[in-house]
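Input record, target 12 of the design panel.
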């Protein structure tokens, strides 16, 4: 029973995939890579995993894609990025390793990844390997190459899906032009900057007292009440401060003392319940106890 309880708690945590300040991550390679696919992770943990796998130099070409201003919901439509979807889902026979993270907290440091490839693998970064106006050029070089694709942020509204589809077609055309079949694509994204815009533009509301309600001798006193200032004082007293630009687990406290005490109390209660149910279930009564006695012994009892 306790195992089911903790399994349910773990499942509820893995199903939280609708964070507004996170973005997805995709990776696929034609080489064998020992990578796992978590539902949610931090950018630092993901960077450590990538650097450990890429330091072995598994491919000849590394394509690092940066797509800012997106969310996991942008890739739910099967037609928004069909080529990327086909690669990540393993429908391409040439792809042997895939990785898809729904929510990544923070921005993945692509510069660090490129530095590891240059240091460990001797890779050459193509200077003109950027997505600009649909142009692209691949220089012939015997060394491993790094292609850095920096797509612009997606617009809002209806053109959003079409622009994402254009970027997907452009990435697919680059894969078709590669001179080698050994490649690894690292597709990083960043959330839209408009997420924190509303929080940053919030102005404090100041309420002024009507002069008609002022007492004699206080007509010229400025009676103002700033609820934001009051809120700041409460935060200083309680120590709870909301960081607008911080990560998800830095802004909110998920494991509060109340939850911790509730779990500690529930453990012995569940144990007592388990012992009681087990004791009741272990009771054994024979079928003869419910049968009516017959014969001379029963007749003597009735006469007495």
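The sequence produced for target 12 reads:
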């Amino acid at each position: 029973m306790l195992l089911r309880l903790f399994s349910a708690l773990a499942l509820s945590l893995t199903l939280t995939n609708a964070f507004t300040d996170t973005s997805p991550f995709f990776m696929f390679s034609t080489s064998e890579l020992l990578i796992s696919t978590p539902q949610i992770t931090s950018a630092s943990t993901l960077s450590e995993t990538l650097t450990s796998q890429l330091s072995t130099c598994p491919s000849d070409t590394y394509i690092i894609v940066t797509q800012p201003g997106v969310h996991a919901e942008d890739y739910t439509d099967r037609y928004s990025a069909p080529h990327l979807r086909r690669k990540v889902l393993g429908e391409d026979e040439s792809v042997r390793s895939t990785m898809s993270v729904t929510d990544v907290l923070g921005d993945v440091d692509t510069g660090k990844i490129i530095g590891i490839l240059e240091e460990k693998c001797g890779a050459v970064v193509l200077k003109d390997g950027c997505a600009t106006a649909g142009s692209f050029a691949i220089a012939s070089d015997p060394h491993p190459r790094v292609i850095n694709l920096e797509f612009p942020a997606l617009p809002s509204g209806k053109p959003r899906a079409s622009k994402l589809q254009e970027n997907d077609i452009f990435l697919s055309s680059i894969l078709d032009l590669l001179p080698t079949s050994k490649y690894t694509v690292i597709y990083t994204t960043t959330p839209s900057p408009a997420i924190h815009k509303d929080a940053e533009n919030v102005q404090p509301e100041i309420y002024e007292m009507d002069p008609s309600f002022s007492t004699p001798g206080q007509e010229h006193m400025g009676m103002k009440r700033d609820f934001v200032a009051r809120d700041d004082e409460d935060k200083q007293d309680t120590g709870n401060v909301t960081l607008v630009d911080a990560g998800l687990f830095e802004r909110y406290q998920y494991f509060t003392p109340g939850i911790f005490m509730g779990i500690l109390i529930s453990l012995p209660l569940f144990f007592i319940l388990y012992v009681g149910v087990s004791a009741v279930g272990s009771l054994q009564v024979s079928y003869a106890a419910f049968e009516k006695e017959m014969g001379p012994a029963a007749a003597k009892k009735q006469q007495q």
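Residues 257-281 form the longest helix (25 residues).
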